[in-house]
């Protein structure tokens, strides 16, 4: 199993990890099989997208529009609850052939 560490620089950010994943698969000399990726952080998500210019901002805007403005009761920090909800909705794992 390989581990990739990605550090974001913004509170909300789309990060293309295609190159990192391809480099690992190439290093492992994998030509067939299933690649399973998962996150260990509770306020991040994994998905696929065609990242043409501006698509990242459109994706972030659409995600934010899905989460209602509520009075959240999360004991740690209520400001993070919408991030946890988005992570749950989008998902924290991907598998592909």
Architecture per CATH nomenclature, i.e. the level-2 architecture: Sandwich
Named CATH topology? Jelly Rolls
The count of β-strands is 2
Distance, first to last CA: 16 Å
- Overall mean pLDDT stands at 89
Main sheet overview: 2 strands, antiparallel
Order of helices and strands: HEHHE
The radius of gyration is: 15 Å
Uncertain spans: none
Count of helical stretches: 3
Q: Enumerate the strands of the largest sheet in spatial order, edge to edge or round the barrel.
A: 1-2
For this structure, what is the CATH homologous superfamily?
YjbQ-like
- Sheet-strand content, in percent, reads 5-15%
Helical content band: 25-40%
Give me the secondary-structure category: alpha+beta
Total of domains: 1
Shape: elongated
What report would you give on this structure?
There is one protein chain. The chain has 97 residues and is of the alpha+beta class. The chain has one domain: Jelly Rolls, CATH 2.60.120. Helix content is 33%, strand content 8%. Strands 1-2 form a two-stranded antiparallel ribbon. The longest helix has 12 residues. It is elongated and about 50 Å long.
Task: Give me some keywords for this one.
single chain, 97 residues, alpha+beta, Jelly Rolls, two-stranded antiparallel ribbon, 3 helices
């Amino acid at each position: 199993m390989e581990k990739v560490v990605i550090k974001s620089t913004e509170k909300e950010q789309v990060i293309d990890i295609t190159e990192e994943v391809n480099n690992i698969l190439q290093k492992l000399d994998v030509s067939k099989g299933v690649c399973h990726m998962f996150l260990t952080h509770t306020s991040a998500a994994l998905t696929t997208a065609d990242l043409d210019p501006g698509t990242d901002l459109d994706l972030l805007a659409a995600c934010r529009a899905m989460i209602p403005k509520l009075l959240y009761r999360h004991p740690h920090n209520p400001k993070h609850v919408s991030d946890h909800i988005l992570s749950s909705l989008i998902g924290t794992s991907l598998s592909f052939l």
